[in-house]
Amino acid sequence: MEALFQLSARELVQRLRAGTVSARAVIEAHLARIDALEPDIQAWAWLDRGQALAAATEADAVRASGATLGPLHGLPVGVKDIIDTADMPTEYGTPIHKGRRPQADATIVERLRSAGAIILGKTVTSEHAVYVAGPTRNPHALDRTPGGSSSGSAAAVAAFMVPVALSTQTNGSTIRPASFCGVVGYKPSLGLLPRTGILKQSSLLDHPGIITRSTADAAFVVEAIGGEDPLDEQSLGLSTAGLVEATSPINGRPRLAFIRSPYWLRTDPTTRAGLEALVESLDGAIDIVDLPPAFDAAADILSMIMAAGIAQTYREDFDKARPLMADVLVRIIEDGQRVSATAFLDAWAARDTLRCLFDQIIAPYDAALTPSAIGVAPLRSDGTGDPIFASLWTLLGVPAISLPLLQGAHGLPLGVQLVSGTRQDRRLLSTAAWLERARPVSAGTQ
């Protein structure tokens, strides 16, 4: 029999709702796993065992009372430390906000709790969620980075410390760590998950995301907590209904494109060979599609928009505590301060043009297959890795998911990214689930 910490999110909730296992037993199993591995991996910025066990005891009492159970009843979840939690610190990975205690839960956390989930703690983030390596190590190789900025979330799920963790992405902070850690990273369409109470970098680019060990688990959780956020100007009232159904095996073979992207030559030879072999193995069921030259500027467009947003958001921290900021963050803020209003509006107009153009290109397909990262996780001493293969899709706001389908250099995991058109999350998840079934893998590290 599998240990409780090895079970998927969906299987855990099924057993919890049926009463074949208690919420307390589930939480104790995951806490024991954390106790065993956390000294090496360092995925958690805050962990409150007593609080988690008390929440589990309450969940068991609710079930015993016969009350209606939430769709995520008893499910342990980790929350990235830029997402507000009223009962735990949210410190943004920086000494500037050491000890910060929010007054309320972020909307996404509130929805998790309302659905019955139990928040185990806060996972480590890079400083201010930018390119600054934190203490977290990759569970597959402790000398390697787990990626950033959702480093703790990806490492915790990969190490079976928790089945689900919240992430965010303004450039590549969900897709890249998922690829490096050999787990599933799902960045839904812009506006599908609520953002109120999450540290803002760029309101035009910030995407909440989720780290799991399967597409089905990602769909399961996002369906329960997604939907309109009245306080978020990017929320479009998108429904999450049908995401779980989309992952069902009854769905037919998807129509796939292979898009190398403008940055294909940045990949290492092992990555290129692995992706080309995967495409070949699909027996001609995939078309090779080249993006027109207009997409070559996507990463520069994103960088300008993101830098301007960071300069605006972190203005107060920059003015009051600049010596406590990492050099890379200081440079981004200074770059953002130099962006004129005209240049910013030009960049956003270019983004809209690219988005419309991509929707035309992807229209005949359910999803496009493309790299998740340039290669496997680099050494921790070399930083958190290059996010370039997520940049285009974050800029466009389209749904994307990284699946741990390949093995790269040094035997380390390597993700494959799927993307779909604007607001086509059901198509994306259906395709991802099909590809998982066609190329089964064992995610995570035990």
TrEMBL record:
Pfam families, per database record: Amidase
Chain ranges of the Amidase domain: 26-429
Domain of life: Bacteria
Similarity annotation: Belongs to the amidase family.
Classification via PANTHER family: GLUTAMYL-TRNA(GLN) AMIDOTRANSFERASE SUBUNIT A, TRANSAMIDASE
Name of this protein: Asp-tRNA(Asn)/Glu-tRNA(Gln) amidotransferase A subunit family amidase
Source organism per UniProt: Kaistia dalseonensis
